[in-house]
Design a protein that fits this description.
Elements lengths: L2 E3 L26 H7 L1 H31 L5 H27 L14 H7 L4 H36 L1 H4 L10 H10 L8 H38 L39 H37 L5 H17 L4 H18 L12 H17 L2 H18 L8 H78 L1 H4 L5 H28 L16 H9 L5 E5 L8 H21 L5 E7 L3 E8 L4 H10 L11 H12 L3 E6 L5 E8 L2
Parallel strand pairs: 1-2, 2-3
Antiparallel strand pairs: 3-4, 4-6, 5-6
Length: about 675
């Protein structure tokens, strides 16, 4: 029972169980290279079957939807259309499940309850989420997965074929057309001369080796592209998700796809890359704008480039740049309206100048330019303020008017009609976009108000529950502690035959009861939301020796190692250290009566180390305590004390180990940051 104040070195801080670190700084368990290779199988499972699933889904859904629309006039389609939506939701759920298995934080969708009878069957068509699932699976899924599949498969077999060319290349017909000979001739500016099979095999092996080494990176990039598309198109809104537990990724090892630790149990972090998380989070809120802008942009490039180059007899390179500029403006419009307006108008002006020599064709706004301008007005109007839309419409109108002053091969009347038509169409689509923007903002504001109302209701219910708990504590615990304090304080007057040792024991009990009452009053003030709750003095690390001394008063054998000098800590760390020792001593007295207890507190420049270790309980005292317990009353705590320890240590980003010792006792070891 000796108490020693030492500056002994701290106990080792390497333990098997650590409290999770802050989500913003997850521990790196693998190198960047090893994480890429670790993801190889996961990426392959995501990318390779996706093309075949989308192909089946596209055929099934297009067929069912076409039959539904074509037969809707005879009511067969009206009955078949809800079934089409159910099938589309099934394929979409498969895509969500595969994305969650990969590691994307996509929650399950909660559909509205379906009524009974024919009204419930037709009510399915009122769910917007099912229509979005149908649109994604029929329009977007197959092109995206076809692209990823077309990149991955040739890359892999190109690597495999190049590395094995030495074995099968000699069986090819020899016609002096090997690739290395052409490259050598082009490099040296000489005629093609066959360099032999050995040179060709060496070149193919090196090329295959490069493809093989880079294959995991390409596969991972294609997997992220598919995950981004699924997140953008299939991630449910705030009113469509289930609990946070269903939003976690299906990774049993609690690691993100890149190998980093992931707090998936809390639903707080799934992907290890901050950039990926940022993109996926952004895409989840603006997903359909991203998908539509990219899809329309790709279609306009595929159509506008050859049309401008062939029909208007323009330069192929310049026509390509104009088409890319007009399509890129659509993508930029989702997030950068000013940049999108500049890029779109500059590209349109370049297209007008490029096609000024056309005769008998649409000018100054070509058909593809009109389409890109209409979509640009639509996206900016739906996504941003009306001021951006007015600026875009005004500048495009001025640009059209200025184009009439340019010399061109067509007649002025046709150009004037083209400008008037374009201005009218953009004005009409702008009105539609403004109305849609107001509707979206209204729905968003309504959802926000509902969320705030729900939060206020939850807070009010929480306060009511806390007041109820405070009342229960006041009526039961505080009253009992007051009785104990009064009885222990008056024992010397009510029982004059007590000896000095007994009187000191009762005084110690009274002091402990008064301290517990003071802490109980502070706890009640916190539960009731009192403003003066934080004004009560809180125990610090310097109060640990007094805590140990009061514990010895109960007859326990407690050894203490405590620094001799003053300890400078912030109040939060000091309070956490005191509570850890207090809870550990309470558990030792409750569950290991008669066992010796060792308390150690050590501090260095960066770490505060705390240890509370008790030995095996005394069999006689344990049996006596078991016999004194009532059969209807369990022991206090129920495991909540250890949970509270872990929460306190986790809040300070420390480490904690709790568990039995090899000698039959129990240990609590914690490391807290000292700075």
């Amino acid at each position: 029972m000796n108490q020693t104040y030492t500056d002994a070195p701290s106990w080792p801080s390497t333990y098997s169980e650590n409290v999770p670190r802050h989500p913003d700084t997850p521990p790196q368990t693998r190198s960047w290279w090893s994480r890429i290779w670790h993801n190889l199988g996961r990426d392959a499972i995501l990318v390779l079957p996706g093309f075949f699933i989308s192909l089946i889904g596209f055929v099934v859904l297009i067929t069912m939807f076409s039959v539904s629309i074509s037969t809707i006039i005879i009511w067969i389609g009206a009955l078949l259309l809800p079934l089409t939506l159910f099938v589309a939701t099934g394929f979409a759920n498969v895509s969500r499940a595969r994305a969650r298995q990969w590691g994307a934080p996509i929650a399950e969708v909660v559909h509205r309850p379906r009524g009974r009878g024919i009204s419930g069957w037709f009510g399915v068509m009122a769910e917007g989420r099912r229509w979005l699932d149908l649109l994604f699976e029929t329009v977007f899924a197959l092109p995206i997965r076809l692209f990823t599949f077309s990149v991955v498969i040739p890359w892999f077999f190109g690597a495999l074929g190049g590395m094995t060319y030495f074995f099968w290349g000699r069986f090819l017909p020899y016609d002096n057309t090997d690739l290395i000979s052409f490259i050598a001739a082009w490099w040296n500016d000489t005629s093609v001369v066959a360099l032999g099979f050995g040179a060709e095999a060496t070149f193919q092996f090196i090329a295959g080796l490069i493809l093989f080494v880079t294959f995991p990176f390409v596969l991972h990039a294609m997997a992220r592209l598919e995950i981004a598309a699924i997140t953008a198109g299939l991630a449910p809104g705030h009113d469509e998700v289930t609990s946070a537990g269903k939003a976690r990724a299906g990774d049993p090892t609690d690691h993100a796809p890149d190998g980093t630790a992931s707090a998936t149990s809390a639903g707080s972090r799934v992907l290890g890359s901050p950039a990926a998380n940022s993109f996926l989070t952004r895409a989840a809120g603006e997903g359909w704008f991203w998908l539509i802008s990219i899809f329309v942009g790709v279609v306009l490039v595929a159509v506008g480039w050859p049309v401008t180059a062939a029909l208007y007899e323009s330069s192929t390179v310049i026509a390509m740049l104009v088409a890319l500029g007009q399509s890129g403006a659509l993508v930029l419009a989702v997030r950068r309206p000013v940049t999108a307006i500049i890029v779109g108008l500059v590209s349109a002006a370049a297209g007008i100048i490029l096609t000024a020599d056309s005769f008998g064709l649409v000018w100054p706004w070509t058909a593809t330019s009109i389409l890109s301008l209409l979509f640009l007005h639509l996206i900016i109007g739906l996504r941003h303020s009306w001021l951006h839309l007015v600026i875009l419409w005004s500048l495009s109108t001025v640009l059209g008017a200025l184009s009439l002053t340019l010399p061109h091969a067509g007649g002025l009347s046709g150009a004037l009609a083209n400008v008037i038509t374009t201005v009218s169409l953009t004005a009409g689509i702008s009105i539609v976009a403004v109305v849609g923007n107001l509707w979206i903002r209204g729905r968003t504001q309504l959802a926000t108000e509902r969320q705030l109302s729900a939060e206020q209701l939850a807070k009010r219910q929480e306060l009511e529950e806390r007041n109820r708990i405070a009342q229960e504590l006041h009526d039961v615990v505080a009253h009992s502690m007051s009785v104990i304090s009064v009885q222990a304080t008056t024992a010397r007057y009510r029982l004059p035959e007590l000896d000095t040792r007994s009187v000191e024991e009762f005084d110690s009990i009274a002091g402990s009861a008064r301290q517990a009452l003071n802490e109980m009053r502070g706890l009640l003030a916190i539960l009731r939301g009192g403003r003066d709750a934080d004004l009560a003095p809180q125990p610090m690390i310097d109060d640990i020796p007094a805590l140990v001394e009061s514990t010895r008063g109960s007859g326990a054998e407690v050894d203490l190692e405590f620094p001799a000098g003053p300890i400078s800590l912030n109040p939060t760390t000091g309070l956490t250290a005191f509570r850890l020792v207090q809870e550990a001593l309470s558990n030792a007295l409750r569950h290991a009566p008669g066992a010796p207890v060792g308390v150690g507190v050590h501090i260095d420049d960066e770490l505060l180390s705390i240890s509370v270790v008790n030995g095996a309980p005394d069999p006689d005292q344990a049996a006596a305590r078991a016999g004194d317990r009532s059969g209807t009353v369990g022991h206090l705590g129920g495991g909540f004390g250890l949970k509270g320890m872990r929460e306190r240590v986790e809040a300070l980003e420390g480490t904690l180990q709790v568990g039995p010792t090899s000698e039959g006792g129990f240990e609590v070891r914690a490391g807290l940051p000292a700075t």
